[in-house]
Amino acid sequence: MFRRGDIFRGKINTKAGVSYGAYGKGNKPRIYGSPYDAAVEGEWIATPTPNVYMYSRELADDVGTLVFNHGEAHAIKILKVYHADGSTTNVYTDKPFSGACDLNRDLDFYHDYQDTKRLYLCSTQGDPAERFHSIELLTKGNIISAADYVHIDNLCIMYGGSHGIGSGTTKSLKVTNCVIGWIGGSMLLPASFTGSRDARYGNGIEIYGGCDEFLVDNCYIYECYDSGITNQNQEEVSDNSRTMRNITFTNNLIERCEMSIEYYLGAQQKTTESYMENFLIEGNILRLAGYGWGTQHPEPAWAAHIKSWWMHYNKAHNFVIRNNIFDRSDANVVNIVAAQPEWLPKMKGNTYIQNLNADGGRIGQPWEDHKFNEKFPAAMERLVGEKEGKYIFVE
Fold first, then answer.
1. What pTM was estimated for this model as a whole?
2. Can you give the pLDDT at residue 242?
């Protein structure tokens, strides 16, 4: 149990069969993945490059972003694009970029976590510690790594570069009454080919692998680089670890994540049973997908409130999505695809809100792309059985 009103910095490896919660009175206990408030601890040292400051403490774990004044602003992580001639360019501007000496836009940052382990920030308004009263560092690693039969309740989990709560194949993970925010952005994979850049990641709550009894209820999840909640796997494995059963996401408010709820499952292998079964998404309010800090994603059109990805098998039985509110997306409102039409979820009583003639969704088998206009309700009924949906067109 963690005392309400207190801040605990670091990361937690849970123990199987243990519940983690709060005691006392006041605000939820705050579990911060950020090792320091960099406006209070350490110094920002001016470098020879105008407006560029170096943080005085070594940071060996890759920083996903910096959050200023508890969300009033955030930094933009500059990635290198690697070219065949050995040169590197800024992923956002296509201009030459070799490191901290090329930072020139306010609140852009570069983290040399592999060599010098130093973090550099461009601040056109002077010393960052004088400019901001709080600077949190989203360092790589799950804030809470979940074991089997764990219940996490009434905690505030924030400022981590990987996942707020993360695990591989897990039995009976329950997350209730929690606040999870400002998650992700650290490096997942190095650049894989010429002309590419390093890949980033980070979800509010993730199971990567199989699961049996995965419950997320009555949580507020916001500002995640990728998804708010996700169960996913695409690896080829030789056992039944990719079976996902008894999944329940209910009564949550998720907003300003790139994807609100994401699920996917790769094709079944000859040696493996791979399917989703008894999967319920109900009573959630999902808002503003793709409107948060994850918009620094270099890839366009990733956002969705329900994201299944169109390249995956997604074999599912008894999969229901009902009575949710899907409130605007920068791309798809919903992205719901499977290799067989009978594996698609059954939709019922959901409310869809989107800008008129914006993207509605990629839906069905074979999948179709639909704009959010007067034809969208009929497409939802035809493809996923949504007969009781409500549709609000924002002009």
1. 0.96
2. 82
